[in-house]
Amino acid sequence: MGGTERNARLLAAIAALTELTGVEPRVTRDATGTLVEADSALVPTTHWQQLVDILETGTSYGMTTADTGRRPRVWLRFDHADTQ
């Protein structure tokens, strides 16, 4: 898979999460990849499968629960090897 196609996956995931939650996700880049985080409380339960489909486009993904006093968040990561 070429770098342009991989970068397109990242941009598509950001756009899809924005559409699904109504808020642009937080995007951070570091030396090894790009992390995209979104507030999962904003996703209607009827759209959870769509959310999972978006998350599965990343190299890895997961969910952080609200037990720390923060709202629950979903995240997906694109390693640089997958986005260059």
Instruction: Count every beta strand, where a strand is a DSSP E run of 2 or more residues.
Output: 4
Biggest pleated sheet: 4 strands, antiparallel
Oligomer state of the chains in this structure? single chain
Radius of gyration: 13 Å
The shape is globular
* Secondary-structure element series: HEEHEEH
What class, by secondary structure content? alpha+beta
Mean pLDDT: 89
Strand order of the largest sheet: 1-2-4-3
Q: Can you offer a commentary on this structure?
A:
This protein starts with a helix and ends with a helix. A hairpin with an 8-residue loop joins strand 3 (60-64) and strand 4. The mean pLDDT is 89. The protein is 37% helix and 27% strand. With 84 residues, it is of the alpha+beta class. The longest helix has 19 residues, at 3-21. A four-stranded antiparallel beta sheet has the order 1-2-4-3. The chain contains three helices and four strands; from the N terminus they run H-E-E-H-E-E-H.
